[in-house]
Amino acid sequence: MKKFKIKTNRKLNRSLGGDIFLMALLLVFGVFSAYPLIMTASNAFKPLDELFRFPPTLLPRNLTFDNFRDLSELMENSWVPFTRYFFNTIFITLMGTVGHVIIASMAAYPLAKYKFPGKTIFFSLVVYSLMFSPHVTATPNYIIISSIGLIDTHWAIILPAIASSLGLYLMKQFMTQIPDDLIESAKIDGASEYRIFWQIVMPLVKPAWLTLVILLFQRLWTTDGGSFIFSEELKPVSYALRQIAQGSIERAGTIAAVAFVMMIVPVTFFMLSQSRIVETFSHSGMK
């Protein structure tokens, strides 16, 4: 009998020229993607005359921090203290993010690991809800929030964020991959459902709920209250910054500083956690 050897070490059939071409192509797309971010950061440190120069320069020739000083003076002279705006943003972001992760995880666990009547239909509705943009659901959301008396409160922003269906979908897809034998073994050892959920299931789906934290943080950090919050003392910091940005052309430098401040936090979060987002989407099937 002939013995066949299986070769396990196979090299990709790719030439050096092909590698150079791919690297050059990725470099071009990388520069193209990073250019708006670099320009936004650069404009924040440019004097007024450089902001209106054509063609625009990528880096500031005369570095200045006057734009941030002007922004600080405007915020200090505002009717509502800047610390109040900042507190509102932190409260909305933390409550909405933590609440969404907890509610979505607890709802996804029975969907992933238990059988009950209507399970398939319910999850199908969750998937279908992802197809609707926020503009489509804006009017129903307002009617519901108004009917329960939450207009002009922070909860008008927090509750819709907690009820978002994206987190339920992601957590369910991740929890489905957890072996049932692992949960059955924990039950045999006497673990309760809550202990299984918090000490076994949640650590195993850490990439999923970390991604939810990142996505919700970015979304709530930039919210301005929309048509739900009218009181000035309840507005988030993004509202105050955008009010400054609506000033005259003399505030072009301040507007550039506002754009940089609003961009730096979400971009930093994404850069520090982009591997988690890619891992979560690749496991959940999200395109």
From TrEMBL:
Its main location: membrane. The chain crosses the membrane at residues 20-38, 85-109, 121-143, 155-175, 196-217, 252-272. GO terms for cellular component: plasma membrane. It is a multi-pass membrane protein. Keywords: Cell membrane, Membrane, Transmembrane, Transmembrane helix, Transport. The keyword Plastid does not apply. CDD domains: TM_PBP2 (cd06261). It comes from the Bacteria. GO terms for biological process: transmembrane transport. InterPro entries: MetI-like, MetI-like_sf. Belongs to the binding-protein-dependent transport system permease family. This is ABC transporter-like, permease. The lineage of its organism: Bacteria, Bacillati, Mycoplasmatota, Mollicutes, Acholeplasmatales.
